[in-house]
Amino acid sequence: MKKPTLLNDPALIQDKIEMLNYLLDIEIAYNILKTHSNSSEAPIDMHYKKLNCQIEVLDKNSEEFSLILKYVQNTHAATHYTYNLIVEDVFIINREGEESRYEKYKGLHNKKLLWHGSRLTNFAGILSQGLRITPPEAPSSGLMFGKGVYFADIVSKSANYCFTNSSNPTGLMLLCEVALGDMYERTHSEYVTTLPKGKHSTKGCGLTAPNPNDKHVMSDGVEIPLGNAADSGIKASPLLYNEYI
Predict the structure, then answer these.
(1) Is residue 160 within 8 Å of 80, Cβ to Cβ?
(2) For the structural domain made of 11-244, what CATH number should be given?
(3) CA atoms within 13 A on the CB side of 183
(4) Which of 198, 197, 226, 208 is nearest to 80 (CA)?
(5) Is 142 left (phi over 0), alpha (psi -120 to 50) or beta?
(6) Is 217 exposed, middle or buried (0-12, 13-18, 19+ CB in 10 A)?
(7) Distance CA 202, CA 205 (A)
(8) pLDDT tens-digit profile of 96-119?
């Protein structure tokens, strides 16, 4: 029997923790797919109910669909030139209890629609349990601004986290309303455990960002940063693109 690799390096430990997280997400999907043989209900209906969310298809002739399509087309970064993104469908997700949980943040200003990409295997867990923050016991390597849920305003930055390829080209992405409030803006890596007083989120400022002059503001005040990717005006940053945490 081959001797297991000694986990004596933070990067190795992080890799194994990520692998375990993927396995946990697969377990969630497996539990959702399990059906009771004595049930007369169609399996697909049972699986849908276990997600505890309502899923509706967005009309492709709607203004919302056109805005999302423009957001995708305008914010595909020049450095991500090895693939193209094609929007096949857009779904409206309403998770059970999500609206009441979000209620306390609705009063915050500076709300944006932002992207979050993840592997297909993670989506049963995301839909049924929501986006989750890395647990306290997990190493923090690779997280520039500490533990949290990371979003982007450049679609291809988030698309890279779907880990699709030529053999499996279809992925899923989330477009979320994110209440940012007053942002703690950083142009360098800083592990944030507690936000400064008066700050509600962290922004890693990138060199390239959607042109703010072309943003679209919806009737409820939520901003869609769908301008073409352009120079952000930031002179020095390790980030090519913005990150919101």
Answers:
(1) yes
(2) 3.90.228.10
(3) 19
(4) 208
(5) left
(6) exposed
(7) 9
(8) 999 999 999 988 999 999 999 999
Residues 169 and 153: beta-carbon distance below 8 Å: no
Instruction: State the residue for tokens 């949980």.
Output: 101
Each residue of 178-221: pLDDT tens digit?
999 999 999 999 999 999 999 999 999 999 999 999 999 999 99
243 is catalytic: yes
DSSP string covering 171-195: --EEEEEEE--SEEEESS----SSP
> Domain spans of the chain?
11-244
pTM for the full predicted model: 0.86
Query: Are 231 and 208 a contacting pair, CB within 8 Å?
Result: yes
In sequence order, the 6+-apart residues with CB closer than 8 A to the CB of 219 are none
